[in-house]
Amino acid sequence: MIYKQLAYIPIIFQVDEAILLSVPELLQRNNFYFNKVVVVSGKSFSSNYAVQLCQNNSWTHFVLKDNTFAEVERLKQFSETSNCDLIIAIGGGKVLDVVKRVSYLTNLNHLSVPTIISNDGLISPISVIKNHHGKTESISGMMPMGVIIDLDIIQKSPVDYIRAAAGDILSNISATNDWILANKEKGESINDIGFHLSRSAANALIYFNRKVLKDKAFLRMIVQGQINSGIAMSLAGSSRPCSGSEHLISHAIDFLDLSKTNVLHGNQVASISLFTLFLQDKLLNVHVEYALATGIMLNFTNLLHSTDKLTLQLLYQKAREMRPGRFTILDMITEDLFVQRVQAFGVYMQEKVKP
Ligand SMILES: [Zn+2]
Q1: How far is the CA of 71 from the centre of ligand 1 (A)?
Q2: How far apart are the CA of 281 and the centre of ligand 1, in A?
Q3: Residue ranges per domain, the chain?
């Protein structure tokens, strides 16, 4: 049977312990039957998982070297000449993105089995591919027909990735506040389901009582939160439910190369969310407690090379240019007020951590 992706949301969602080897069963249970399956992985640890899956089912293993256009082409040719009817992507974001792209180009179904969770690209029709200048480009990809997440695999992944995933979800609160503002000020329409899905995904984590990153129960909530965020964006037809002023500032920091350390996107955006919530006058104690419990940096300016007035002004200007048309709290304040609020935020956070 051939499943053609018409909907914007994957059909299979399965998050559980030790389910890697149940992939064939999950397909059958959903009435999907394939003749020739190619399992694509990266070179290192995702390769071991792919080998296990292939051995059990006599499927073909394909190892990707990188997330370049050349690799997209190599996999495209391989899947066409091998006559496969399903690609299973097992690995980190790079593997998932290359497969999404190949699936888009060939119209082949694919299934995602992530081995790490760290950002909001898990469920999205966007592929980030590296061009021959070494720069990444965000281009169209196909939404996976299913996402299968093995909690044992995620638990073994580096804790910093888990923290980034837990952190990125804090931006849902700041982003949805911006969305309300855009609705009030500019009449932008709000997709109710997308709005509530995004917000409840974040609140389920913020109000969870045992926030231990490697605990299975919390991990399950983080994974579910990412899935719900992805669905929220699909329903809204844009990243609006999960991306507001905090993402604009984060993208501007990356664009201007202002960060002194190489911090994961989710961690950076989480720190900035605390500040944008402060700007919106919506920062609650539970948000700060969430950051403390998960190890998110309280004051995002500690990430920057410099916090002088000129740098902050530049940051504000660039943030406002990052995504024309996305109305946020940044459009409600002046450059000078932004600088003042950054300084006031620093003082506020210092008070918070005083013993
Ligand atoms: Zn993000």
Answers
A1: 25
A2: 21
A3: 12-156, 159-353
